[in-house]
């Protein structure tokens, strides 16, 4: 995973959360407006904090985990700049140093995909452990119709390394989900309440990017 430390050390990253994540957080707040309970958020793969400020502002507690020490440092600095607080862990999604049933909202914004299937399955199992029984899970992943997959080395079905083209070029191991696989895998650990497919084609190059956003609840 040193590829991510190198990446975050050498290039700037996004500064704003994606619109679908904003919508889901606002929807969660509208559903909880009469509740007095504390809302706790966990972000898997926070990177240098593109979502950190928004999530820390909208939840009573914000916790994040990432494999890159540099990314965590930048994310922490972003929160401090905005007078916000968060708890950060540097490590793997497979084993998170947090108690079971700790979080009301868990975010995976294009992070889980960057692993082998063995790690992805272990991560989903661990995520199911730490989510509150009434909690929700937002997961955004790449779809297998995304261009560039023929430019890398397929190390297992739909998992590629050393991609030279496409949105994951130069970013190490990447898994691209097809719909059937996605539903089958996530439903082993969660109740799926929504699945949105997004297709975006560049009409000049004709390159296609496919994404899925899954909305899940604890079983």
Account of the protein in words:
The chain has helices spanning 2-10, 19-32, 52-58, 69-81, 117-130, 179-187, and strands at residues 40-44, 61-66, 87-90, 103-109, 131-142, 153-156, 159-161, 174-175, 190-201, 208-218. With 219 residues, it is α/β, with parallel strands linked by helices. The protein has a single domain (2-218), classed as 3-Layer(aba) Sandwich (Rossmann fold), CATH 3.40.50.150. It is globular and about 50 Å long. The chain starts with a helix and ends with a strand. 37% of the residues are buried.
Largest sheet: 7 strands, mixed
Q: What is the CATH C-level name?
A: Alpha Beta
What is the multimeric organization of the chains shown?
Answer: single chain
How many helices? The count is: 6
Total number of distinct structural domains: 1
Strand order of the largest sheet: 3-2-1-4-5-10-9
Overall average residue pLDDT: 93
Order of helices and strands: HHEHEHEEHEEEEHEE
What's the N-to-C terminus distance?
31 Å
For the secondary structure, the number of strands is: 10
**Helical/strand content category:** alpha/beta
CATH architecture: 3-Layer(aba) Sandwich
What percent of the residues sit in helical stretches (DSSP H or I)?
A: 25-40%
Can you tell me the CATH topology?
Answer: Rossmann fold
Instruction: Report the portion of residues in β strands.
Output: 25-35%
Instruction: Point out poorly predicted stretches.
Output: none
Q: Can you tell me the overall shape?
A: globular
CATH superfamily: Vaccinia Virus protein VP39
Radius of gyration: 17 Å
């Amino acid at each position: 995973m040193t590829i991510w430390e190198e990446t975050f050390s050498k290039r700037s990253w996004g500064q704003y959360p994606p619109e679908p994540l904003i919508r889901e957080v606002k929807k969660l707040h509208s559903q909880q407006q009469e509740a007095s309970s504390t809302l706790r958020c966990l972000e898997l793969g926070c990177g240098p904090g593109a979502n950190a400020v928004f999530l820390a502002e909208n939840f009573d507690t914000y916790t994040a985990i990432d494999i890159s020490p540099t990314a965590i440092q930048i994310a922490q600095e972003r929160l401090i700049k905005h007078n916000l607080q968060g708890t950060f862990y540097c490590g793997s999604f497979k084993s998170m140093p947090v108690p079971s049933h700790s979080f009301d909202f868990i975010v995976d914004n294009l992070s889980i995909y960057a692993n082998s299937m063995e790690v992805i399955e272990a991560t989903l199992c661990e995520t199911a452990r730490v989510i509150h029984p009434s909690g929700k899970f937002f997961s955004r992943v790449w779809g297998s119709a995304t261009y560039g997959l023929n430019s890398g080395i397929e190390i297992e079905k739909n998992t590629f390394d050393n991609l030279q083209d496409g949105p994951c070029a130069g970013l190490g191991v990447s898994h691209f989900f097809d719909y059937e696989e996605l539903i089958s895998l996530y439903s082993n650990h969660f109740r799926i309440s929504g699945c949105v497919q997004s297709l975006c084609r560049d009409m000049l190059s004709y390159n296609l990017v496919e994404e899925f956003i899954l909305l899940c609840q604890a079983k």
